[in-house]
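My main concern about presentation is that the manuscript never shows what a single data entry looks like. In essence, backbone conformation is discretised, so a fold becomes a row of integers matching the chain in length. An entry of this sort, consisting of the sequence and the corresponding backbone structure tokens, reads as follows:
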Amino acid sequence: MLAFDPEAHVYSADGVAYPSVTQIVSRVIPRQHYADEWYLRRGSMVHKAVAMLLHGTLDFDSVDPRIAGYVNAAARAVSENAGDFAKDMEVEMACHHPVLRYAGTYDFLFGTSLWDWKTGDDPQTEIQLGGYVALIEPRRSVKSCSAVELHEDGTYSMKTFKPSRCKALFMAALSIYGWLEANKINMKKEQ
């Protein structure tokens, strides 16, 4: 059974800690930018509100005005692209891969489409989606992966990727991650 400690951001199953998709990708691929704490919290709030929206439990009057545009953008993206997904959707689903020994929580899976919500452009998303594809595929087919960038003004943009490419990129990152860990190599950001 998978457990997640949100404070430490640690996944574990049967007493064994698993690195997350995000930790693996971040360890191997240097970030081009670093968000300060406010933007990280905003992203978390948007994800929670969008999850509530998808489950039909969101009271729009309770949404903080600072994130309302992003939530409206998600509602619009779903309305315009997802069709009748309610019967076959998974939202903020945590899972692990017992053989490859990593875990993660993907944002939105409906039918055979996997979406990752973003409040800014992040090229690493293609690789991150690949980690989720590998978590999902043992039980379900994924035929498209999309980074859905939500904008403050209520608009959105989508970048769609081939799942096979996403997965291949993630598997390469996972291999390098394992090599770094096995050799106790600590990569520090160059100044």
